Amino acid sequence: MDKFLSNLQVEGDGRLVPATEDELMEVESLLIDDRCGMHIDAEPGQTVGCISNEGSSSWMAQLESLEGLSQPKSKKVDPDKLNGRLEEPVPSLAPSLRESNLNQSGSVGELVAGGSPLSVTTKPDFSILKGEICLDNLSIKELHETFKATFGRETTVKDKQWLKRRISMGLTNSCAVSTNFIIKDNKFAKKGNEEGCNGMYGSFAKDPSIVNQKGLPTCLVGQLDYHKVVPERRLENHNIDDYSGSDDHENEQRAAKRVRKPTKRYIEEFSEVESKESSGRLLNLAKNSGHGLMSPKSHVRLVRNVSSGGRTVVTRLDSLGGSGIQVPCVSRVRRSRPRKNFMALLKFNPSGMGMAATLVKKALDDHSFPPDDGNEDRVLKASSTPEHVHHLFVGMPEKGKQFSVMSAAGLGNNMEMKMNSSGDSDDNVVTVPTSKGGVRRKHHRAWTLSEVMKLVEGVSRYGAGRWSEIKRLVFASYSYRTSVDLKDKWRNLLKASFTQTPPDTGVSSFSYFLLTCSSHPPENHDY
DNA sequence: TTTAGGG
DNA sequence: CCCTAAA
């Protein structure tokens, strides 16, 4: 648990993208199945998504990203290496292997802890991700290597078809599969093609779903990439994520403990993590085996360089509603002004099989981003095509809303419009004098779907706890809705996410929650 | 002032 | 949502 916890706690600041009203919300989410999500946390090695919208941030963070996020204090990432790593294609599915190894060793945390991305030389190359992997072209020997990398064990089988099949399956199952690849006819291919960003992102956005050989329902994996705030030094190079594990997690955690006793939220998260762990069973192959099968693909995560404040904020990832979404959380040690630039990672993992998951991503241009600091370095490593935007609609649980996922490339703006129209409008704050002499806002101002989405986005971007930031940047146009309101709402959302999941479902509670709410089209918000 | 939490 | 303790 500690490991998990620590992993979860990895701080990362992520930020979605532009939050201001004018700006678009950009949300990228990847769908991840539960286990993946979990794994991700646990297993830093793999990275799945990468996002970038032009410079704008994108989120496709992955669990792995966490790693990247977490920065080892001690270690510094060597950009070159990273780059090299990223770019180098690795024939063998090293990642998988590595992960499996890690798992075996039981050192997931270790990986993470290893922290420095660099430190992990063994880390798999994610480069593979870039290209498509075509098992057909591999020789038996290569297939054997791949097999080994994938499953962590050798095989003597000479049957190419079998090997390909097995590998494909392994890959598919592995959470890694996440969005980018599709396996078809024994061919493991990236779905999208062109995306710019290392290719990962784009494909991601386009079609998160993965098809596996079996024709089983695809499991969705979604992740938001969050940008984590990284110490500048680290970032200095590129904002590449490092895959490093984060040893910091533990430290941070410890630090937090020192500072204050665990808060309720902390506890909740912790428990959540555990539940997650247990929940990810269905699809999760790797997990069970103990060899994580990581998705061969890792994604490069874009790291936003935040130099603005100069101050680095550490955040940890919170999971929203158990395994559904993870968002960066402000480090417990606070007191310093929250930094504006982070990217949050938000991830959804509907793990249900056959569920079509989609994340929403809103592509933003950098400009759209709030002028927050100006310092923000938005150069993300790669950019995916902005066009691919997936919108995610999330309903409010309480309301019994639904969340639907819509993936529409290039449709991004619809959402926005809808959202704006619905929620943003009235500013008039209705207050009611209280008997006590105070004025209190007239009761409920129902939270609209758009508001909720913005909130989620804001949290993913800036981190839970940075309410004032979110308020300023994301809810600037909503005069009502104070930072406290945001906080309360978030609390409710979390609560709801936990609550609504029926027991025994393989699906994570949060995912379930989202799913269950998805019956209505976005159009039907209850405004 | 802002955040976390309880009410 | 409100109120308050902490920081």
From TrEMBL:
Stretches with biased composition (Basic and acidic residues): 75-88, 238-255
A Gene Ontology term for the protein's cellular component: nucleus
Subcellular location: Nucleus
Cited Pfam families: Myb_DNA-binding (PF00249)
InterPro entries according to UniProt: Homeodomain-like_sf (IPR009057), Myb_dom (IPR017930), SANT/Myb (IPR001005)
Region entry Disordered, spans: 69-98, 238-259
Chief place of localization: nucleus
Domain HTH myb-type: 441-498
Alphabetical list of PANTHER family matching this protein: MYB-LIKE DNA-BINDING DOMAIN CONTAINING PROTEIN, EXPRESSED (PTHR47122), TRF-LIKE 3 (PTHR47122:SF4)
Name listed for the protein in its UniProt record: TRF-LIKE 3
Species annotation: Salix koriyanagi
